[in-house]
Amino acid sequence: MSSEFEIIQRYFKRPTNDTILGIGDDAAIIAPTAKMELAISTDTLVSGQHFFEDVDPYKLGYKAISVNLSDMAAMGARPRWVTLSLTLPKKLIEYNEVWLSEFARGFHELAQMHHVALIGGDTTSGPLNIGVQIIGEIESGQSLRRDGAKSGDDIWVSGYLGDAALALKFELQKIKLTDKEAELCMSALHMPIARIELGQLLTGLAHSAIDISDGLMADLGHILVSSRSAAIIQLEAVPCSEVLKRFLPSSLAVQCLLAGGDDYELCFTAPKKNRNSIESIAQKLKIPLTMIGEITQGEGLLVMDAEGREITVEKRGYDHFAS
Ligand code: ADP
Ligand code: MG
């Protein structure tokens, strides 16, 4: 079995250009670009909570960094450095060294794709837990915050919502999917694509943004609270895949769409005058960007169906501490 030192050397240490001092000392040293602000965020994946322990380790490595990239996207920041805190069950390493190389492969693949350097971390043993801290850069004053929404803003979302939640229902054998449908939804669940370029292009155009990790209603709700605003959205307008559409208008499908979570799409608000610019970003990036409603005065989030009736969902989103 590998020692902690061997694990770090073999699986995680890689040459990096963007670092003054990387893995191997008591701390990493980085040099932020002059006049840029730093965006810093951490996201932890807990076994049994965020994933099943028998999940493909390559996909787990990929997702661990992807969900953190998504936070950078939501701020409009360019991701640059990550640290990785790994707690590994001894059993897993003794019996299955392939696990680590596959996990590292998924992690490094996505890091390299986005020119993000792994500059340090911590490795301990215990129940499987993966913590990633990410540091990005953004021009001073340009970050996309949750508290910037203004009454009259359009509300937009990227991509399609609900497929990851649908995949989870499928894994738990609550619904049936064809092989092709399952493949599509599973990739949304296990290998989400962080909208990094989109986030950066939205700086200067959007008033506020958030990435949808807990569910549209919950996350848009965070924008509304931070911005002291209300919103009205149209269920019909919320973009979804053909797979999810097949399950509409069942309450299961509506729940996945509005409150499923694990989407890692961006929800943002922008003044109406920026509609054309936003549509040209959609064309440039070949990502659907869909207007789903409007920011209003007051408080609360109203979701309307095609007949103008208010829709209520059982749970607005995922909450670790809710009963
Ligand atoms: P210390 O003795 O200060 O606790 P460690 O032995 O924990 O240092 O780590 C040695 C070096 O390896 C440090 O540079 C640390 O940042 C890095 N490191 C430890 N675990 C990881 C990991 N999982 N991924 C990347 N770097 C790691
Ligand atoms: Mg240590």
From TrEMBL:
Query: What pathway annotation does it carry?
Result: Cofactor biosynthesis; thiamine diphosphate biosynthesis; thiamine diphosphate from thiamine phosphate: step 1/1
> Which positions does UniProt annotate for ATP binding?
G121, D122, R146, S213
One GO process term, biological-process aspect: thiamine diphosphate biosynthetic process
Chemical reaction(s) catalysed: thiamine phosphate + ATP = thiamine diphosphate + ADP
Pfam families listed in its UniProt record? AIRS (PF00586), AIRS_C (PF02769)
Under the heading CDD domains, the entry gives:
ThiL
Organism's domain of life?
Bacteria
The PurM-like N-terminal domain, residue ranges: 24-137
* Enzyme class, spelled out: transferase
User: Which Enzyme Commission numbers does its entry carry?
Assistant: 2.7.4.16
Q: Which residues are recorded as binding Mg(2+) 4?
A: D26, S41, D71
Binding residues annotated for Mg(2+) 2, in chain numbering: D43, D71
What SUPFAM superfamilies does the record point to?
Answer: PurM C-terminal domain-like, PurM N-terminal domain-like
Residues given in the record as Mg(2+) 3 binding sites: D26, D71, D211
As for family, the record states: Belongs to the thiamine-monophosphate kinase family.
What is its biological role?
A: Catalyzes the ATP-dependent phosphorylation of thiamine-monophosphate (TMP) to form thiamine-pyrophosphate (TPP), the active form of vitamin B1.
Stated name of the protein = Thiamine-monophosphate kinase
Source organism per entry reads Nitrosomonas aestuarii
What is the primary gene name for this protein?
Answer: thiL
